[in-house]
Design a protein that fits this description.
about 250 residues; six-stranded antiparallel beta sheet; six-stranded mixed beta sheet; alpha+beta; single chain
Length: about 250
């Protein structure tokens, strides 16, 4: 009988440790991330919202950011972003910071964005930020008149200079950007496992059909020739040309 009780002791201890680990894991995954595309067409606003939940108690006074990777089908205009940052409308870091805004989708590369978030006054431990994004030109499609661009759920990052975060929930992360407004002391970025409201966000970009390529080329050529002829005729009719005299 005593031997049976001794055998049950390690089992109970293991079960208690498992329940404790599950409780900690559930608390750590209490953070929720949602992202939404506003407006229509090629020029959209990517709205990201983060709710830290219980783990947000440790992140008081820390900078919160969302790190997301944009596929080649969309991009962020660095000049537009610089203008918005000058007016304190948004703050983000682009990696790489040099972007070819004229490149089509099949010649572009992924873009890593670190989007700094602001507290949401309507919700405690909630943060949000918006980023203007633009669709790139895609190759003509065979059947569908829309190209699908998939946006993965962003990674939640917190940068703290004074706070000590729970090691069970927060893991050190390497980020090539400073903390927002914290440059006088060494600070550390941390990442947290979260549950996205939706695993993926799909952006639909209108594209042309390959079977219309010949028609588009012919119409474009005719329009170019017609416009050039009209411009040349107007110049010849209304232009004033002064004779050039040569001095001997």
């Amino acid at each position: 009988m005593a031997g049976g009780r001794r055998d049950e002791a390690p089992l109970r201890a293991g079960l208690a440790a498992l329940l404790c680990a599950l409780h900690v894991r559930a608390a750590c995954q209490d953070a929720t991330v949602t992202q939404e595309l506003l407006k229509e067409g090629f020029h959209r606003d990517l709205l990201v919202k983060v709710e830290l939940g219980v783990v947000g108690e440790d992140a008081g006074g820390c900078a919160v950011a969302a790190r997301t990777r944009l596929p080649p089908g969309i991009y962020v205009d660095p000049y537009e972003l610089a203008s918005l940052q000058q007016h304190n409308l948004t703050k983000a870091v682009l990696i790489p910071d040099v972007i070819d805004v004229e490149a089509p989708e099949y010649l572009a590369t992924d873009l890593l964005v670190l989007l700094y978030m602001e507290p949401d006054p309507r919700c405690s431990r909630c943060f949000k930020a918006a980023l203007p994004v633009h669709g790139r030109y895609h190759r003509p499609a065979e059947e569908s008149e829309e190209a699908l661009i998939v946006l993965k759920s962003p990674e939640v990052l917190v940068c703290c200079c004074d706070n000590r975060l729970s090691a069970e929930c927060w893991k050190p992360a390497e980020v090539e950007a400073p903390c927002s407004g914290k440059t006088d002391s060494p600070c550390q970025w941390y990442s947290i496992t979260h549950k996205p409201a939706y695993e993926e966000l799909i952006l639909q970009v209108p594209v042309g059909l390959r079977q219309h390529s010949s028609l588009v080329c012919v119409v474009t050529l005719l329009a170019t020739v017609l416009c050039s002829t009209l411009i040349l005729a107007a110049v010849c009719k209304y232009g004033h040309f002064s004779p050039v005299s040569r001095s001997e």
